[in-house]
Fold this sequence. Notes:
By secondary structure, the chain is an alpha+beta fold. Helices cover 31% and strands 12% of the residues.
Amino acid sequence: MPSxxxxxxxxxxxxxxxxxxxxxYDTYGGVASRGKHYAPYxxxxxREASTQGIPWKGSKSSPIIVDCAxxxxxxxxxxHLHNHASRTTCSERCRRESRRHHKEWYILLMLKLFGxxxxxxxxxxxxxxxxxxxxxxxxxGRVANIARRLSLRGAIIIEKDGHSxxxxxxxxxxxxxxxxxxxx
Length: 184
């Protein structure tokens, strides 16, 4: 009888402990999971707290103030609670504006969160981890086409070396995303 596990039963678990708080998180991501893009951390809160040297104190962990990814204002408060730990916008207004420009928003947000050069396939894979019908339509080709438009606006720098796929990086990682989207 053939094995149900053709590649062996010792496959790696997708659930891993966070490097900061040691809570388990799904390394792949998906709808309603934490730690979609912050590995080896379960949330943006844990990544920022670890970077700033703030110790984990359970429910007594202090909030952290970070910049809003959309408007750039340093007023977004991240808390240790799961439903407040990975916010990327500071207000309902910023969230609505970012959703209005969702094609550009997701690509620029992934580049901002990872802070490194990424190929269109890597960007598409990370966007699809978010889940939902909108993000499922982000294919490699679609990401590359939108990235080309964003490079014309000065948001993205495209690197091509001839032997590997094009890679994309933010022209200014500190700039707010709303600076590069809209009617430009």
